[in-house]
Sequence to fold (246 residues):
Amino acid sequence: MTSLLTEEMVTVFVGNNKFYLHKDLLCDRSDYFRACFNGKFHEAAKKEVRLLGDDAETFELFVDWLYGAPVKEIEPDGLFSYLALVMLCEKLCLEPLHNAAMDQIRTFYRHCSQPDRVPAWTIQYVYENTAPNCPLRRFITRFAAWTTWKLIPNPDTIVYQTLLEKGGDFAVHFASALAAINTHLPSGPTGDPTYGSSCTFHNHKVSAKCWDYVQHERVYDSGSRNFGGEALTAGDSFRPHSFPED
Fold:
């Protein structure tokens, strides 16, 4: 990293906050910033870029990671920043940080002492701010379905009633996840998506897949797919139906 800490600095505006960062380091870690500062855009000439609609507290998590800090466990009141961090990573093309943030989100839900239902506002926020195949969508939907299924024979879907009545992607994905659980449980392994291979909810468009994924992906035939179209692994909870094409 030391070789990337050159004298040339750039400014990133996030809301009312300014971040002065090393240009070479920023461009090395992010294709987005590389295009901004090394291209023919006005950002390159001015040596500044503005991130509209992003949260400064979330961007600070990125800056900490940029300069070598590990991605910390989520505090009890810190989930929102990590949801936003995943969205920021997709925007800035940051696969390693995206995957580390997803791991922490899964850990948070695995050990959370709060009620284990995913609030409707969380689902709505995720679906309004992510792409159709975002791993965060898949995880949140599968966890919502799993916690609903656990209440059978009296599954309480009232918490999601408004979202389900709207139809759209979540309603279809939620129904698909419930159907998958009903198909493979109780005779199959657990359907809790906080367990199993972490790579299930990673992005690996440019980076190599995780070791455990590579070792076990051949266990299932190529026709077995998870919600994002990736081949499932031996560590996955179950083999659910695919989400329909968007």
About this structure: The radius of gyration is 20 Å. Residues 218-246 have pLDDT under 50 and may be disordered. The chain is about 45% helix and 5% strand.
